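Quick one, probably user error.
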């Protein structure tokens, strides 16, 4: 009998919880819309400062209110990177100004050596996604011209790309690179092939991805440095951090975007090794640290702002359990000083690198987790992070990174990915789902959404 009463009580409390949640939902949605509106206002503020102090240049320096060009002349990094965010936020007049600037002023016929990886994820990625959103053929023409000028990077004995290429002469330089730079190209080059009908882009970038994978150690890990001429590893440190991170991201995403089974198989062969040798459970928390790719020996217990993307990737690949667990650690890292450091020793909880570059990864993972779980906890996390972000990084001339998360001293830096990624993921976390249909796109590593083929 007491069992029966307990069951009835449980049933009643469940009904009450469902009813309560039903009442809370409109309030939660209304609150989310208010946060989305705040994100949009702050994004616009950052963009307006770019327009005011750095128009036509690669990036804004928000403290000195000056402009910065990566290679001495502008490739319009910020407008190209920011354009799809402007479009998604319906900042129509600003988007129109950015688009006109790009189609009238952007030229890749320049005698400069550019970093293939950065130019691919930011410029090629930005042009392709904005083309897909607007149908403006001039953006695709620019992307195709850029793609052709980047192609010589693959002319190495291994097919792995050189780091730099001269956009006018096609000369290449710097043979020592890393998996992120060799393996984070196929979403962009593959999309370019899809949109132009020219298979060469897909083939070259796919080969680079496969050549990276082929060189994994018997344990299934890749290192941090590789020579494209000899094909040999120059650094055997293995991790999911900068220099390797998006190589793994593209293995899984290229399967999703192109249905390339080979990419899925490479991911399936890699993820068990990551979870076996890099994952580290400590105090009941999940982290991913460093290990030697050949021996699997733990080399560092470090994790940082860049690593925080991995929770999102785990969620995207269906491993919600690890994704949630890791996201909790990332949020702990954030809350240590109310802004995440670039690198943390998770064993001692001491900060290793104190800077904060306004990075998007932790926000990106929060967005993915909210999408897959619908758990309001992730919006609460996102709101806390956004409040901190505004509190410490808002500057008179835009948004500024921090030189030191402990003192909150600001840095004269607002990289283009702040507008391409950080603000976009904050916005999408709170905006109504129809703002961008998550399941219809795959984001490149710079948050440029590419349409999935139906
Ligand atoms: C961005 O350019 C990309 O997200 C890249 O994959 C890693 N670094 C920055 C953001 O932190």
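Nope, works fine. Designed sequence:
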């Amino acid at each position: 009998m007491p069992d029966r009463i307990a069951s009835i009580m449980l049933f009643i409390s469940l009904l009450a919880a469902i009813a309560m949640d039903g009442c809370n939902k409109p309030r939660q949605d209304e609150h989310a819309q208010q946060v989305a509106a705040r994100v949009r206002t702050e994004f616009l503020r950052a963009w307006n400062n770019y327009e005011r102090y750095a128009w036509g240049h690669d990036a804004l320096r928000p403290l000195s209110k000056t402009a910065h060009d990566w290679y001495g002349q502008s490739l319009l990094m910020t407008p190209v990177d920011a354009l799809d965010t402007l479009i998604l936020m319906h900042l129509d007049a600003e988007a129109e100004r950015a688009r006109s600037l790009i189609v009238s002023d952007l030229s890749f016929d320049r005698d400069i050596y550019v970093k293939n990886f950065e130019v691919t994820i930011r410029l090629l990625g930005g042009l392709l996604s904005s083309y897909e959103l607007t149908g403006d053929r001039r953006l695709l023409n620019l992307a195709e011209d850029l793609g052709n000028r980047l192609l010589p990077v693959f002319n190495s004995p291994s097919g792995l790309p050189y780091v730099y290429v001269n956009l006018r002469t096609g000369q290449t330089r710097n043979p020592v690179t890393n998996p992120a730079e060799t393996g984070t190209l196929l979403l962009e080059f593959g999309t370019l092939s899809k949109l132009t009908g020219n298979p060469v882009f897909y083939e070259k970038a796919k080969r680079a991805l496969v050549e990276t994978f082929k060189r994994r150690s018997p344990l299934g890990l890749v290192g941090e440095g590789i020579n494209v001429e000899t094909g040999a590893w120059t650094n055997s440190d293995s991790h999911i951090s900068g220099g390797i991170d998006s190589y793994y991201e593209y293995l899984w995403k290229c399967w999703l975007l192109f249905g390339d089974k080979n990419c899925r198989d490479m991911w399936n062969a890699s993820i068990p090794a990551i979870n076996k040798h890099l994952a580290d459970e400590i105090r009941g928390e999940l982290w991913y640290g460093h290990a030697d790719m050949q021996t699997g020996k733990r080399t560092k217990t470090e994790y940082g702002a860049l690593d925080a993307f991995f929770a999102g990737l785990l969620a995207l690949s269906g491993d919600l359990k690890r994704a949630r667990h890791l996201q909790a650690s990332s949020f702990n890292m954030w809350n240590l000083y109310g802004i995440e450091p670039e690198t943390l020793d998770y064993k001692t909880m001491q900060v290793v690198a104190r800077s904060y570059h306004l990075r998007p990864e932790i926000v990106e993972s929060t967005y993915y987790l909210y999408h897959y779980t619908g758990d309001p906890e992730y919006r609460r996390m996102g709101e806390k992070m956004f409040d901190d972000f505004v509190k410490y990084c808002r500057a008179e001339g835009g948004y500024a990174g921090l030189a030191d998360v402990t003192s909150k001293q600001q840095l004269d830096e607002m990289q283009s990915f702040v507008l391409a990624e950080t603000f976009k993921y904050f916005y999408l976390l709170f905006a109504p789902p129809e703002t961008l249909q998550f399941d219809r796109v795959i984001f490149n590593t710079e948050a440029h959404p590419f349409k999935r083929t139906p």
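The chain has a mean pLDDT of 96.
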